[in-house]
């Protein structure tokens, strides 16, 4: 008698749940950006750290381009200067555009891409998933800096656990 076995790959979350998680972090970061008074967004820092506007520009240089790079293997040059973004409204608009870019390219990222080696921005070498985790971790790190700035300014930051 011949027996056959079937195997399934267990996973913790699926691709769409990962996107929901990433976008949840972005929602909190956007609320953090909204909480800043415009002047302080571009001028306030502590201990020589960059302003939250500068940190946001770094996120903009990475988030949408990472989704596009994972989907197309076309990686933009890393540009965090974004000198055209001189107002809070411009930063918020660019942030929303980056979220749209993530959503647009997400469906084109194959499951295999997460396991492949990639070189993001010509400098970061890792797998697709390690690159994405770096991007999410980097955003969380910079948002935490923004939380410290807001508290120093006497402003209560948004609840980090309200991601969805």
UniProtKB/TrEMBL annotation:
<protein>
    <submittedName>
        <fullName>Uncharacterized damage-inducible protein DinB (Forms a four-helix bundle)</fullName>
    </submittedName>
</protein>
<feature type="binding site">
    <location>
        <position position="142"/>
    </location>
    <ligand>
        <name>a divalent metal cation</name>
    </ligand>
</feature>
<dbReference type="Pfam" id="PF05163">
    <property type="entry name" value="DinB"/>
</dbReference>
<keyword id="KW-0479">Metal-binding</keyword>
<comment type="similarity">
    <text>Belongs to the DinB family.</text>
</comment>
<dbReference type="InterPro" id="IPR034660">
    <property type="entry name" value="DinB/YfiT-like"/>
</dbReference>
<dbReference type="InterPro" id="IPR007837">
    <property type="entry name" value="DinB"/>
</dbReference>
<dbReference type="GO" id="GO:0046872">
    <property type="term" value="F:metal ion binding"/>
</dbReference>
């Amino acid at each position: 008698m011949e027996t056959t076995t079937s195997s399934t790959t267990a996973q913790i979350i699926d691709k769409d749940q990962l996107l929901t998680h990433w976008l949840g972090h972005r929602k909190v970061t956007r609320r953090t950006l909204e909480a800043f008074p415009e002047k302080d967004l571009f001028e306030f820092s502590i201990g020589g750290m960059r302003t939250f506007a500068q940190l946001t520009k770094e996120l903009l240089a990475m988030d949408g381009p990472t989704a596009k790079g994972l989907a197309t293997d076309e990686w933009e040059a890393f540009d965090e200067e974004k000198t055209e973004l001189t107002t809070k409204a411009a930063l918020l608009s660019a942030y929303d555009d980056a979220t749209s870019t993530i959503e647009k390219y997400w469906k084109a990222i194959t499951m295999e891409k997460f396991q492949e080696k990639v070189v993001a921005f010509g400098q970061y070498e890792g797998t697709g998933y390690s690159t994405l985790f770096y991007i999410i971790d980097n955003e969380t790190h910079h948002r935490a800096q923004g939380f410290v700035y807001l508290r120093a300014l006497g402003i209560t930051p948004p609840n980090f656990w309200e991601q969805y």
